[in-house]
Amino acid sequence: MQKKKLIVANWKMAPAGTKEAQGIFRDIAKAGAGSRTARVVVCPPFVFLPTLAALRSKSVALGAQDVFWEKDGAFTGEISAAMLADLRTQSVIVGHSERRALGDTDEMVNRKLRAVCVAGITPVLCVGESVRDHEGGHVIFVRDQIRAALQGVKRSDALRLVVAYEPIWAIGKNAVRPATTEEGMEMAIVIKKTLTDLFDRATADAVTILYGGSVDEKNAREFLWNAGMDGLLVGRASLSPKSFAAIIASAAPLPKTSAVVKRRKHR
Ligand code: PGA
């Protein structure tokens, strides 16, 4: 049977209130319950985690958007991985480019990722270049980001890792454009090769690879089925239950007949 696609919602700093967060979450849970081909994770702002955990959805898991690496102590404003585990947070995003822009270095991303592993939570490691060049500098940049983030990580932890390829130029309101399927596919291969070199082929195959950056209901299917991605990391479109439901639905393969029809049309 086909492995389920992983669809992760990154709500960033939205919505503004609890009621709205609950409403969007309930709608997403309905869409998730209707899917047999997608695993859905919603990463809301920290403050909504307890109230959304209380809704006890079976179809949608919860994730966090960041974490601090220390176990406990005098770290004003920080949240530990153990606190997130206590709320049954299943995944934590580390190394998102918006956090890197606010000061997270490769070393901090590595410490966060290792703390997440110790807590038994799945890390969703974000990597991605800010510009592409013809010499392939973006390939080296992403490879180095992965190597730095995974320093000292055990193979047993790497097995449940999620790596999201999020080119910075494709993310958010100021995005130039989404990546093409070819660009996505190329980077999925680079990620797999880097993981094979760091660990081994079996580990690289076990890792879930996501694409993120201006994913919407129109391009989701293409990334999942033509770029060979194991899933998607969705920002803006994840706050619109209608769009996000359509993205979840795109995790279902098209019936064989329509593939045949499409091929015939192209002849
Ligand atoms: P976007 O954000 O889908 O709004 O481009 C993606 C992300 O930053 O994770």
- Provide the β-strand percentage band: 5-15%
CATH structural architecture: Alpha-Beta Barrel
Helix-and-strand structural type: alpha/beta
Fold-level CATH name: TIM Barrel
CATH superfamily: Aldolase class I
> Which small compounds were modeled alongside the protein?
2-phosphoglycolic acid
Number of helices: 12
Global shape: globular
Number of domains: 1
Per DSSP E runs of 2 or more residues, the count of β-strands stands at: 8
The N- to C-terminal Cα distance equals: 31 Å
Please mark out the parts with pLDDT under 50 across 5 or more consecutive residues, or reply none: none
Helix content: 40-55%
CATH class: Alpha Beta
Care to describe what's here?
It comes from Candidatus Yonathbacteria bacterium RIFCSPHIGHO2_01_FULL_51_10. It catalyses: D-glyceraldehyde 3-phosphate = dihydroxyacetone phosphate. InterPro entries: Aldolase_TIM, TIM_sf, Triosephosphate_isomerase, Triosephosphate_isomerase_AS. It is found in: Cytoplasm. The chain has 267 residues and is of the alpha/beta class. It has a single domain (5-265), classed as TIM Barrel (Alpha-Beta Barrel). 42% of the residues lie in helices and 15% in strands. It has helices spanning 18-33, 49-53, 81-86, 97-101, 106-118, 137-149, 155-158, 181-198, 201-206, 220-225, 241-249, 256-266; strands spanning 5-10, 38-43, 60-64, 91-94, 122-127, 162-165, 208-212, 231-234. It has an eight-stranded parallel beta barrel, surrounded by five helices. α1 runs parallel beside α11 (241-249). It binds 2-phosphoglycolic acid. 2-phosphoglycolic acid is lined by residues 10, 166, 171-172, 175, 212-215, 233-236.
